[in-house]
Specification:
277 residues; 2 domains; elongated
Length: 277
């Protein structure tokens, strides 16, 4: 995040201060906050790697290749049952229009992790099922809510249904770059779920607190971080988020009054200025 982005929601307000030294103090606060944002430990991780989708799929493909080899070796025996190559099954499920078949695969219990080949095959096939729009929505929501596998969640994070994306945004097993991407979703409910997710980085939370279109409910949540919620959170980063909430034009009177008694002087100053005190 650049200094300009960090200061965008605050410098205009600070410039209206009636005291001679207040603009200088506020500018120093903003400069320090900009430095803190630049040094956020999770700021890099919060940005989705450019090849994240490809990497998630590549991992599944690598497992698929290994499984295909094992399947071929195991089927050499005369009495061995025929096993359809994983790549063939994957493509069939990816293009299937049979909702009943897709439902069955989505709800099928996963093999024990100790059965490595079977487990890898099952999780690879779930990616195909998750990415197929003919899979019933309730099954896609089920996968989005319960699966911890990045290749599956990446597919579902791009689902046309906001309900499915909302379920991904709330998944506690999300990678922080994935939930960070969902904080920028076009649908407010998806963004809100992502910002409530503990996997969301402080950088994304700060940007959410600065968003002039953010709803009051989510601002209320963000205004409690480092206080009533997540009391062991980083003091500096959580206070930056609360200060941004205080400066957000959508912050309610109740939020501002509560923040005017905050433990951080910077938050108190921002809230009281908004209250005209």
């Amino acid at each position: 995040m650049t200094d300009e982005t960090m200061n965008g929601g605050t410098m205009g307000d600070d410039a209206t201060s009636t005291t001679n030294d207040q603009p200088v103090a506020d500018a120093q606060t903003d400069a320090q906050n900009a430095t803190n944002v630049a040094n956020m430990g999770d700021a890099t991780d919060a940005t989705m790697p450019a090849d994240a989708d490809a990497a998630a799929h590549a991992a599944a493909t690598e497992a698929a290749d290994a499984i295909d080899t094992n399947d071929t070796d195991e089927s050499d025996g005369a009495d061995a049952p025929h096993i359809e190559p994983l790549t063939a099954t994957y493509e069939r499920l990816r293009h299937s229009t049979d909702a009943a078949e897709l439902h069955e695969f989505a709800r099928r219990p996963l093999p024990d992790r100790g059965e490595q080949a079977a487990f890898s095959r099952a999780t690879a096939l779930l990616e195909a099922v998750a990415g197929n729009p003919h899979t019933p929505e309730e099954d896609r929501v089920f996968l989005a809510s319960t699966m911890p596998f990045p290749n599956v969640l990446v597919k579902l994070s791009e689902d046309a249904s906001p309900t499915v994306r909302e379920a991904v945004a709330a998944n506690a097993d999300d990678k922080n770059w994935l939930v960070g991407r969902l904080t920028k979703d076009d649908v407010p409910a998806v963004r809100d779920k992502a910002l409530h997710n503990k996997r969301t980085s402080w950088k994304m939370r700060l940007e959410g607190a600065q968003d002039p279109d953010m709803d009051v409910e989510t601002l209320d949540f963000l205004s409690r971080l480092g206080a009533e919620l997540e009391p062991d959170a980083n003091v500096v980063l959580s206070s930056m988020v609360r200060r941004a909430v205080a400066l957000n034009p959508n912050a309610s009177q109740e939020i501002l009054e509560r923040l005017s008694a905050d433990s951080s002087d910077e938050v108190v100053h921002a809230a009281r200025r908004r209250l005209g005190q």
